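2024-03-11 09:14:02 INFO queue: dequeued item SH3 domain-binding glutamic acid-rich-like protein, len=115
2024-03-11 09:14:02 INFO validating residues
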Amino acid sequence: MVIKVYIATSSGSTSIKKQQQDVMGFLAANKIVFEECDIAANEGNRKWMRENVPEEARPTTGNPLPPQIFNDSQYCGNYEAFFDAREDNAVYAFLGLTAPPGSKEAEALAKKAQQ
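2024-03-11 09:14:37 INFO prediction written
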């Protein structure tokens, strides 16, 4: 399974750039292997991302904007969903991965199991 982060390297939006950096920085800092898929330089990536964001996750107008996060072809969510998962110490579950032993998420899951 490969985490894929769909980004736009030539985005004019500072908000999108910060969100992309936030997601990729968090994944790198936590040693979660991921692949950057640039939708600005690769039309195939753009088309695939737009076709595979589920209907309920699409904006009411326009196309879904980066960053969009997938586990292989399974949609995980956008930046807002990632941010919420990070705040809840649930990023591994959000990504469809098993939390490594010793992580805050693994400890929280162990506490829940004991209750």
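2024-03-11 09:14:37 INFO annotate: Residues 3-113 form a domain with the Glutaredoxin fold (CATH 3.40.30.10).
2024-03-11 09:14:38 INFO item closed
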